[in-house]
Amino acid sequence: MTLTEFVGTGETDVAPFPLPPAGVPVIANDAEALRIAAEVARQIAPGAAQRDQDNRFPAGELDIFSNSGLWGITVPRNYGGAEVSYRTLGHVIRLIAKADSAVAQLSQNHFATIACLVSCASPEQARDLFALVLKGYRFGNAFSERGIKNVGALKTRLQITGDTMTLNGVKHYCTGALSAHLVQIVALDEDGHSHLAIAERNAPGLNVINDWSAFGQKGTASGTVQLTDVQVPRSRVIPVWKAYRPDAPFADSAISQFIQAAIDAGLADAAIDTAIELIHTRARPWIDSGQDRASDDPYTIQAIGALKIRLNAGLALLDRAGDAIDHAVSTPGAQSVATAQIETAQAKVLTTESVIEATNRLFELVGTSATDRKLNLDYLWRNARTHTLHDPVRWKYTIVGNYYLNQTFPPLHAWS
């Protein structure tokens, strides 16, 4: 089986993806990033529903995205990157997610890893890895585990062997690992501190298993990574726990959540646009409306208005969150990081609720014909429902309320 064939239907050990081609462009600034993102989105949008229906990994679309230079736009300027604002990154992710939310999600852990390198890597580590990112290398995730008390109670440990670290374990929900060039493995040291061990995708003992079986975001191929005596040089082990010290935190947690929220915003936008198109071309007005066109049905008009208002509110909060993250990155500290977390949590609440409502109401507004399997419109809802389960929004309400009511800062971990 090749990456361009079916994925997510078996337990096949997938061979590493080819290295990026020579000449991947380095994007210079925010305006260029937005222009290129719009063009990439235009190229990858066609066929998104069909790729989902066929269980086909979006290999070509992913290459278009990463080979465009967009995966390097948050690399700091002093390492050769554009260091675009997080507001701009949010816009880029939304554009890609509107075209294909699975392709957008494949980049989430990549950008989160770049943030970890900014906050926690040594200058030598950053120089080494950012040079690869600017050449088009992709990071893929090997973080979560099953059979543990909670998402942070990992079994995988770092074992020191001379100048290398040895890792053994099994990781699940490994978004991006199948198509990565470098796999970031989260493991704990003897003191329980978390580290990112960045392994070559073709490292001996590192096997990516094609067993992603969720009904949504099928194109992410977020399967299993098996680690059997995988060797990682110490020079590529990043002490990411340092980003979460209460006395000197960084904005890494807000950044990870911000990207997730941007994906949901893009998917909500796609669902609303799809509903509007089909209301004009496929839906019929209700018999009691007295109208000749579904687009003149007053309750349909009201429903679209409500969806747009809620989405636009979420987009405004995303921009606020991006600005707060930029401030926390440039001026790290307990208050700036907490502000970034709170702004991001508020955005994530609205984008989560918007995308679930929009992908659900699409069927109500268009009518029974929208359920035709040939249209595969349910892939939008399935993608939304699957992606929004990444972490519970009900806890976002809690940390926001506790912040404003009791001046309590959010917890410092990757999910808040």
UniProtKB/TrEMBL annotation:
GO molecular function: 3-methylbutanoyl-CoA dehydrogenase activity; flavin adenine dinucleotide binding; monooxygenase activity
Keywords: Monooxygenase, Oxidoreductase
InterPro entries: Acyl-CoA_DH_C (IPR013107), Acyl-CoA_Oxase/DH_mid-dom_sf (IPR046373), AcylCo_DH-like_C (IPR036250), AcylCoA_DH/ox_N (IPR013786), AcylCoA_DH/ox_N_sf (IPR037069), AcylCoA_DH/oxidase_NM_dom_sf (IPR009100), S04_starv_induced_SfnB (IPR023922)
GO BP annotation list: L-leucine catabolic process
Entry superkingdom: Bacteria
Domain Acyl-CoA dehydrogenase/oxidase N-terminal span(s) in chain numbering: 39-131
Domain Acyl-CoA dehydrogenase C-terminal positions: 259-391
The name this protein goes by in its record: Dibenzothiophene monooxygenase dszC
